[in-house]
Design a protein that fits this description.
This protein is mostly helical and 309 residues long. The chain is 70% helix and 0% strand.
Length: 309
């Protein structure tokens, strides 16, 4: 029997209702969180240069104070815009999984997850500017996530979203919470972490109960390969933000920045984490062997990273 599937339209660019809309007080009451902040109108740098390893980069250290602040602002906004879309995607993931689930308990679980994601989305939206959200819509990672959500089958969604990405998200949000200079954002990210742990844990249980076909494994590995490539190429966004502020960078300048960012070693850490998450779930050897065959498990050198831009 073929695996059931539903194709959905995520509409990640869906507009927000005005603050005066009559639905807003009902939504606020449903969220049951009086501490939620209104959406941010102004951009702010929430992390220091050290969080992005920019303190090791010569061109950043030689930049003016205004240029440094602008680079930090762009880096911070990218992190928050990414989180914004991840949580928005979560609001589409949960109802799709609810419809695809066979047991009553799974349907209950994903109905509860949908509420979690709606709350997370509202919380993150309070810290990111509207312009940053618009600018990040066509980010390759968000576009990949959007494609998986629209077309992915239940098994693929369980693995990609819950086992891998929410597992990675626990570590990612923990680092963001630990390093942010804003107490309210730290509190928000710490709260979200507790829910992400439940989402990840349930995904492991549900995925490990499955018996997969070769086709199902292939459907999982292809988006994994694309995601791993985005990791392999290093901190491209950080270098791009430097270039946006400082002007065109030569290939040798880009290579120097990737070297100063210790891109290869830092990327290797992320890949090691991702591989460890794969090893916690079923079919680990098969999935890792397929990724290795696609040359997806090694970090790119600084020269390789610079050549991609």
């Amino acid at each position: 029997m073929s695996e059931a599937n539903i194709t959905i339209e995520t509409r990640l660019d869906s507009p927000d209702l005005s603050a005066e809309h009559r639905l807003q007080p009902i939504l606020a009451a449903a969220l049951k969180d009086n501490s939620l902040l209104p959406a941010s109108e102004n951009a702010k740098a929430y992390w220091s240069a050290a969080h992005f390893h920019l303190d090791k980069v010569a061109i950043f250290n030689d930049a003016s104070a205004d240029e440094q602040q602008e680079i930090l602002l762009r880096c911070s906004e990218s992190l928050l815009a990414e989180a914004y879309y991840i949580e928005k995607c979560g609001m589409y993931f949960a109802p799709k999984m609810c419809l695809l689930s066979e047991s009553t308990e799974e349907k209950m679980l994903y109905s509860l997850f949908a509420a979690d994601e709606a709350r997370h989305f509202k919380q993150i939206a309070a810290f990111v500017s509207a312009q940053a959200v618009v600018d990040f819509l066509h980010n390759p990672f968000i576009q990949l996530l959007d494609d998986v959500l629209r077309h992915g089958k239940k098994t693929t969604l369980t693995y990609i979203i819950q086992v891998l990405l929410e597992g990675w998200g626990i570590r990612h949000y923990h680092a963001l919470a630990g390093n942010t200079q804003d107490a309210k954002l730290k509190e928000t990210l710490t709260t979200i972490l507790k829910d992400e742990a439940r989402h990840h844990g349930s995904g492991l249980i549900l995925f490990n109960d499955q018996r997969l076909t070769a086709n199902q494994l292939a459907e999982i590995v292809e988006p994994l390969r694309q995601f791993f490539h985005m990791v392999q190429v290093g901190p491209q966004a950080i270098v791009a933000h430097i270039e946006q502020v400082k002007g065109h960078l030569s290939k040798s300048q880009r290579m120097a920045i990737f070297t100063e960012l210790d891109a290869e070693a830092e990327t290797e850490k992320i890949l090691t984490l991702l591989k460890s998450l794969i090893k916690t779930a079923a079919y680990a050897d098969d999935i890792l062997n397929r990724l290795a065959s696609a040359d997806s498990l090694r970090a790119f050198t600084a020269a390789e990273c610079a050549a991609i831009m």
